[in-house]
């Protein structure tokens, strides 16, 4: 399995709620730079948090890659979601190439858990950072971090 984990681009600091924060112009540019890293290795599915900034990020990547299959919104990719639940959901998917679009602290903790088997040292994922992992199965401690790239 190949898994990409993308943190949303820079978002406006305030909105009516955290879930409603939108990408800034700089955030959109960041996302497009990260999307360029995925050219030639397109995921089979893009899964995104329901938060606006993650939806906008996923839509920009989807368009940049020219994918046919629409972005899927899932409730288990919000900032405070449990990384163990994300791993269980990925295992149930049975898909070989997946892009997750989500938020801190989830993305950093998830990458650490998949690579090291613990949550003690979350990956440093700034806005629009892209992590690439691979392994036979999406299991804690059994995936290899191939790259962690800022936009």
Automatic annotation (TrEMBL):
CDD domains: HP_PGM_like. SMART domains: PGAM (SM00855). Gene3D superfamilies: Phosphoglycerate mutase-like. It holds the Pfam family His_Phos_1. InterPro entries: His_Pase_superF_clade-1 (IPR013078), His_PPase_superfam (IPR029033), SixA (IPR004449). This is Phosphohistidine phosphatase SixA. It comes from Pseudomonas qingdaonensis.
């Amino acid at each position: 399995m190949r898994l990409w984990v993308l943190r949303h681009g820079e978002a406006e600091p305030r909105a009516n709620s955290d879930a409603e924060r939108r990408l800034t112009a700089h955030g959109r540019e960041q996302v497009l730079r990260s999307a360029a890293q995925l050219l030639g290795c397109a995921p089979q599915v893009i899964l995104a948090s329901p938060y606006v900034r993650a939806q906008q990020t996923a839509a920009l990547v989807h368009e940049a890659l020219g994918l046919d299959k629409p972005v899927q919104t899932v409730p288990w990719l919000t900032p405070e979601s449990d990384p163990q639940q994300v791993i269980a959901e990925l295992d149930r998917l049975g898909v070989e190439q997946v892009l997750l679009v989500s938020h801190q602290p989830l993305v950093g903790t998830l990458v650490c858990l998949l690579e090291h088997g613990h949550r003690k040292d979350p990956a440093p994922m700034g806005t629009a950072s892209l992590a690439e992992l691979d392994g036979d199965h999406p299991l804690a401690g059994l995936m290899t971090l191939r790259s962690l790239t800022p936009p």
